[in-house]
Amino acid sequence: MSLTGTPFFLTTIVLAVVSVMLPLLLWGRVRGPAVVRGAARLTMLVLAQGAAVLSVFVMVNNTNGLYDNWADLLGTGQHVVVAPNLGRDGLGTHKQLANEPKVVQRFGPTHDARMGPGVRVTQVNGRVSGVHGEVYVWLPPQYDQPAYRHRRFPVVELLGGFPGSAKAWFSSLRVQSQLEAGMRSGEVAPFILVEPRTNVLPGQDTGCANVPGVVDAESWLSVDVRQMVIDNFRARRGASGWAVAGYSAGAHCAAKMALAHPERYRAAVGLSGYNDPAAEPLSLTARSPELRRTNNPLWILRHATTPPRVSLYLSGNRNDGYRDGLALRRAALPPTRVVVAEVIGPHTTGVWRRQVPQVFRWLTSELSPFAVHRAAPARGV
């Protein structure tokens, strides 16, 4: 039974109701010595508490997109085949990806009603990174219209938090359902939306980093997933047509990858993110002083040979992303641009969901040829 499916959720509710009714019906009917009666009644109470906690956990998990399946929850999933040393560019021996055979994928429906219509899924074996995992793709309304049959579309790569599901932007943040009307009216650019698996190590946040011998998560996201989209869809190839957006740990990743690879991304969005990898206690990159330093977006920006041609939109409350965003804005030199918005609210999907329309209007203004005008910097949500 699927961890996130409706049948399992309903089963937990029924189990909670039954476990509460049992003590009410059987409390006075328990027979035997005092020790036996006490043990039986305690067992019923523990079962009732456990069933209630399980029901609440499943509801929270489905709402916030924490774990997709039992393997993610139990830490038994295996998504890393090899982790070679790919060098600073994260390409290894794959320097000319455009000259290599295309990664042709088969896409199917998600069979998950929470994600809404039009979202497709495929399993990708990263030939550069050695990571394999699912990638969800949603195409804009214009994609199949005859007037656009020769048009290449801009792409936004969507990153979840830790722990986090590769479905979260579609299911919890409802990104495509919020944007589809704006795409049809022209208020929002017709973006291809791509959400790949980010949690590829059991019980560890990779920090979207390349760590030889452990994982090449950065190359999985910024090379393999990116190339797969270009090979299978009419997606823009250059950096000017690509952006990356994330929340929480995904926000950290988005800012870091865009600053480190302006040749791949022109813009990044970070919702309630952070600069120092150690902000996530289970971060792989926080365990080493060198990795902690070199995977900090602020360090990357300050030590760039030339200021990267990247625009960042960073939001959060004062102690949850906003101050880190201000630090990046202070360090930025043209052509790097940083917009920082202070928001009110906790570290939850509800806060991030409300920001989706504004974020994508800003992305529309940043990714040419849709950059007709620049969105005014947000002052809060």
Can you describe this structure in just a few lines?
By secondary structure, the chain is α/β, with parallel strands linked by helices.
- Helix and strand element order: HHHEEEEHHEEEHEHEHHEHEH
User: Helix segment count?
Assistant: 11
**Rg value:** 23 Å
Strand content: 5-15%
> Mean pLDDT, nearest integer?
89
Low-confidence stretches: 371-381
Shape: globular
**Main β-sheet description:** 9 strands, mixed
**How widely separated are the two ends?**
39 Å
Q: Structural class, from secondary structure content?
A: alpha/beta
How many β-strand runs?
A: 11
Q: Main sheet: which strands, in order across?
A: 1-2-3-5-4-8-9-10-11
Give helix % range: 25-40%
Offer a few descriptive terms.
single chain; 11 helices; two-stranded antiparallel sheet; 11 strands; alpha/beta; nine-stranded mixed β-sheet; disordered C terminus
How would you describe this structure to a colleague?
- The protein is of the alpha/beta class.
- It is built from eleven helices and eleven strands.
- The protein has helices at 6-26, 34-64, 70-74, 168-171, 175-185, 217-232, 249-260, 289-294, 297-302, 322-331, 349-366; strands spanning 108-109, 120-125, 132-138, 155-159, 192-196, 210-211, 215-216, 242-247, 267-271, 311-316, 337-342.
- The strands form two sheets. It has a nine-stranded mixed sheet with strand order 1-2-3-5-4-8-9-10-11, sandwiched between helices.
- The longest helix is centred in the N-terminal third of the chain and has 31 residues, at 34-64.
- It is globular, with a radius of gyration of 23 Å.
- Mean pLDDT is 89; it is low at 371-381.
